[in-house]
Amino acid sequence: MAESLINSIARLRVIEKGLLTPETVGRLLSSRSYAECLKIMTESGYGMDAGSEGDELESMIRYKLTQTYALVEELMPKRFAGIAKVFRMKHDVTNIKLLYKLRLQGLELGDASLDFGGIYDGEKLKAAIAKGDYSMLPKQFVNALEELDVTTYKAPDPQAVSCSIDGAYINYAYSLKNGFVREYFGALADFTNILAITRGFTDRQFLPVGEYSAELLRRIGEAYGSSPEQALYLIKNPMETSPLKDAVRKCFAEYIRTGHTSAIERERDEYLLRLASRSRSDIESPAPIVGYQLAREREAEVVRLILTAKRSDIPAEALEERSVALYG
Description:
Blueprint: H1 5-15, H2 22-30, H3 34-43, H4 56-75, H5 81-104, H6 122-131, H7 139-151, H8 158-175, H9 179-198, H10 214-226, H11 228-235, H12 243-258, H13 262-278, H14 287-311
Helix pairs in contact: 2-3, 4-14, 5-6, 5-8, 7-8, 9-10, 9-13, 10-11, 11-12, 12-13
């Protein structure tokens, strides 16, 4: 781990030039074949672990992300180590939810295919969930999972499992008491709660609040059932000044017009990317280093999307422009 945050960020300014450019993404989109895409990726510094087996695309992505996580750990000052890790924990959260739901169904966990990128060893995580021993996890997760053990004993509820574990994740992020982390995860909670309202969730299923209080979310939910326009007003009235609420109002209005929640999901992803991008120039915060990690993960999603389409002979026109937008 580094000792000087300023030196780490100065070094990062050089390293981040290796991120894929919009021009490279354009080449991938216009390439004639999957094989040509792989060649472009190799030329762009992705390469592939010589010892890897199986799917070559996933091997390339995993190899690059492994390098990224190692670099972030090297650049991050010790006092901020937990901040980079909390962003990687989104992969652990996906795995915990999967494994817990498999256990509820009485299925074996050993063969479960886990999301790559988390901070916990997959086999140890499988063993912990299988035994119901959650002591390797932060207390927020321990409390949520132990409560689920009781509430799901007679009435398994997969939706309740997801909401509870997501809530534990947000609470853990808030506990780090870092401004950037709080803003990022608060925005994530707000968008997720608005999505929950469109899906008819109750207030017991809301995530810990960001800018929207639990009471305001309840009122928005009640209004939505009879008057989506009134819900839109409650999301943000004209007298408020809030970039987050502006973004939520914009996508909720599009949702009312189209009926597609993808409008909210898309704005959520773009807003979070803007938060990370905005913080890249902050030399007194670990946010630029976290931003690089997020940029590489977003890059991996774009690469996977394009190359999977090429491999399946899906036309490039089928990929929405926003779906392949890179971190700015």
